[in-house]
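Q: Structure tokens for this one, please.
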Amino acid sequence: MLTLDRLAPAPTSLTATHPSPFMRQTAVLCWGRADHRDPSLARLFAEDSNANVRHSLARALADIPPDERLEYQAITERLRSDKSARVRRATA
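A: Here is the predicted structure, written as tokens:
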């Protein structure tokens, strides 16, 4: 992650659909730290088949400013009923 911070910014959408779950998880982290977030990517991450990606999204949503969280309330509710207990706990 620190190495990526030093590189020129790449569109998160390029790694959001990568075959590797590690790359998609990295995309979530970059999305969460971005100044401007694309809500459609949050929906994509919430539907990811990998629980680690969904867990990272839940943590990223918990870390964004409270006034911005309202925009992602439906996604947070979806993650609260996730099949992974780890994802559900991260939304608390």
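A few notes: The radius of gyration is 12 Å. The mean pLDDT is 89.
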